[in-house]
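In this section we turn from sequence analysis to structure. A common task in structural bioinformatics is to predict how a protein folds when a small molecule is present, because the ligand can shape the pocket around it. The inputs are simple: the amino acid sequence and a SMILES string for the ligand, here fe (ii) ion. Study the lines below before reading on.
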Amino acid sequence: MKQQTLIPDSGFTDHQSPNSNPNDGLNGGKVTDLGNGSDIVYFPRFLTPEKSWGYLHYLNKHIPWTRPTIRVFGKPCVQPRDVCYIATEGLKELSYSGYKPDAHSWDDFPPLKEILDEVHKAFPGSHFNSLLLNRYNSGNDYVGWHADDEKLYGDNPEIASISFGCERDFLLKKRSYKKSQGEVEGEPPSKRLKKSNGVEQYSFNLKHGSLLLMRGNTQRDWLHSVPKRLKAGSTRVNLTFRRVM
Ligand SMILES: O=C(O)CCC(=O)C(=O)O
Ligand SMILES: [Fe+2]
């Protein structure tokens, strides 16, 4: 049985979207069922390209980006991308890899509030209250395999990820301690790869203005990454909206 999630499938699937074309997902979300109550909904054109360029320029210029030192297996490591954290006042503090980012206020960044409103409108019933921003200045910047499974997000966190600028690959692979959950039905809008080592992996090429939603058991059962791509020549900014419980 499919796990119940906060955000329903309805409203943004192709067949219900007024301008939808079943082939390109225009204005529509395509669901990729990862099995066992995990799925991804991908909206290639969540925001128009024009609006998205405006946001990219704004974020590049006005966000107080930092490149903190975190700890990986106990060793200090400079994070291989710029980051910033925005959160509603009074929430539990975020801490990952030995790093506690300062929480900036939504009020200082009106365009981010505007995007948050768009996300809430698109997903009635959602209550995102924090945002982790990432900036990849070149194809050398990346995020390694991880899951956003910190306790403060609860058991089945829904994470809405919006991308601006340079297209990059977003990969998902099943956590290795989990057994394969069997076949996935239908044609996903992503490349489904079965690696020679038997690891099931998915790849989404995240477009300028796109939104990718991870939900259900995705953080429990899957890892995701944005690997280095030496041919990626320009800046990409990514916003991940989360709900601290
Ligand atoms: O840049 C992305 O698309 C993913 C970022 C991410 O996984 C994170 O911030 O946790
Ligand atoms: Fe993540």
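The domain at 32-242 is CATH 2.60.120.590 (Jelly Rolls). As an exercise, try to locate the residues that line the fe (ii) ion site and compare them with your own expectations.
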